[in-house]
Amino acid sequence: MRKLWIFTILIGAALAAMLLMARTTKAEWTTNSREALQEYNLGHEARMKLYPADAREHFGNALALDSEFVAAKLALMIYSRGDERKRLAKELEESDLNRLTAREQFLVRYHLAQHEGRDKEAYQALKSFLDAYPHDPWGLAAFAGRAWGEQNWDKAEKLYRKLIDVDPNWVEAQNRLAYIAMAQGRFEEAESLLKTYQYVAPDQANPHDSMGELLTLLGRYDEARSELEQAVSIRPDFCASHLHLADVYLLEGRPEATEPVFERAAEVCEERFVEEMRCVATFWSDYFSGDLDAPWRPERARCREVVGPFFFLIHRMAVLSGRIDEALGIEAVIRERVAKMDSGGLEAKHFGGLIHHVTGARLAVQGDPEGAIEELESADELFYYWGQGEGIAKLFNRLNLAAAHELAGDEAAARKIVEKVRKVNDKFSAFYDHVRQELAS
Predict the structure, then answer these.
(1) What's the average model confidence in pLDDT over 13-40?
(2) Fewer CB within a 10 Å sphere, N or C end of the chain?
(3) Taking CA 53 as the corner, what is the angle to CA 302 and CA 268, rounded to the nearest 5 degrees?
(4) HSE-up of residue 48 (Cα within 13 Å, Cβ side)
(5) Taking the CB of residue 376, how many other CB atoms lie within 10 A of it?
């Protein structure tokens, strides 16, 4: 009798678990096609791996298998541009949301509001959803992403840690925790987090790419190359890693060594992307050789068009070659762009830092070190150790700031700033004498 009672309890528990699983599965995504759901899940996996082409393909397949699969349509809209994005958004606006799960309803409302620039409405949809479902990973990811975009590091870190607790397979959170630590100069912690990321996602390219960025920032160039080569061996079309490999050679002052990187990238990356990388390397080669007039020669016209006015080196070469009007024109374009941006966003902070940096460099060359210090300090506040690009920009800006202090007669302040750079990247700090001589010219 006792055995029968225990058996009955076990059967009841199993049935309850099955019912819970059924409700959970049903609550995930609304589609009657098992094949469409499989494609959608593959798309989500690709999204986590930062493989956008694969994600788009799988979401498109899911929608082809079930034209009423709203979650797939929304995911495809996010990965689309231009007329296709507008068409999918219109179809989503016309969808009957009442037949969908609460999560799906939230995601549609949230992303459509974002798409149409209705940020307050997007935030309200997110808040309402999280109030009702505080442990839903999709809601947590969206909330954490907002804090990330605002560079509210403490809030973002807490949310990403909660997201990992809720869904350990949400590996994007592990990556972003590492970048949050990196941005704040907690480099040992960032490296530890990235090792964990590599452990939980051993077959993915991005954990190695992120580690390569960190090691580049820290001046560990040989190790960085090894990580980035691993990234492209796992995923040859992971184009960010090709770019980061080229950057390592440029930081070493070896632009000629980038060509094999470009040749490999040309086989798998978009033509415009590779062209821009080549043009950047070309201008760095001109700069390193002391040919400051090169950007204004006819044979460089195409490259100037490709890199655009936001590549700081063109402005610097303009100032150093005496083309002050050209430099002022570039500054005006950057200011115009900053004025059109949301002041709290990542892009706005980057370009805000950029305009302060280039203005400060120009003022230093023009003999106004005090004005340069003010601008370069403002740039320093806006630049973070945000991967190798933003991080190197912060280090370079600090070398300029140190030089401005020295030009103003405060050598002690200059030495203190150079020491801060040295503690992050000893190799890069050796560039200080060159920067000081440039600004004193």
Answers:
(1) 64
(2) N
(3) 50
(4) 22
(5) 28
Point out the least confidently predicted range of 3-12, 171-180, 209-218, 388-397: 3-12
Long-range contacts of 349-354 (CB under 8 A, 24+ apart): 349/151, 349/382, 350/382, 350/383, 350/390, 351/310, 352/382, 353/378, 353/379, 353/380, 353/381, 353/382, 353/383, 353/393, 353/397, 354/310, 354/312, 354/379, 354/393
Phi-psi region of 253 (alpha: psi -120 to 50; beta: other; left: phi over 0): left
CB 273 within 8 A of CB 265: yes
Going by the DSSP 8-state scheme, the letter that residue 360 receives in this structure is: H
User: In terms of DSSP H, where are the helices of 267-386?
Assistant: 271-288, 301-307, 312-320, 324-339, 346-365, 369-382
pTM of the model: 0.89
Residue reference for tokens 């098992």: 34
Nearest Cα residue to 388 out of 193, 236, 247: 247
Query: Is the pLDDT confidence value at 354 over 80?
Result: yes
Q: Angle, to 10 degrees, between the axis of helix 346-365 and the axis of helix 369-382?
A: 160
Chain mean position to CA 423: 24
- Per-residue pLDDT at 344: 65
